[in-house]
C-type lectin domain-containing protein (Seriola lalandi dorsalis), 157 residues
Amino acid sequence: LSCPLHAVNQKPFNEHEGKLQRGNCPMFWFSFNGRCYKYVATHMSWADAELNCVSEKANPVSIHSLNEHNFVRSLIKNFDHAEELTWIGLSDAHKEGKWMWSDGCAVKFTLWSVGQPDNSGGSQQCVVNNDLSDHKWNDGRCSLTIPSVCASRINCP
Ligand SMILES: [Ca+2]
Ligand SMILES: [Ca+2]
């Protein structure tokens, strides 16, 4: 995140839909459909990612459509060309198999990778984006330390 915003803005976020736009968002945040998003490169556990986002009056991103998923993927790719695993705000830590967004929105849209969620080892309660197989979602161990994406709070769809 040390690179100048100007340079970041020159990179396309999507082959078809143009470039990352700051819009009305704060420095280092990017706008999509009226919501602000930030890629956080620091490797953290899911809980630390949540605390970090909350410290900025946000939460790990909740994703409510394929369009939003594609934007988040593009945001990640803009900063990480390897497109590695990244936390989103979904977990079933409170009740196994019952998925909740940490920002309180109901889970109406999911984009699980093939065969997921599998609660592998009985200890996967937090969800990563960009699973290696198809860049969709996979439940993983919450203690995994990886980058994350924060998003501003919205009226839930
Ligand atoms: Ca689980
Ligand atoms: Ca899994």
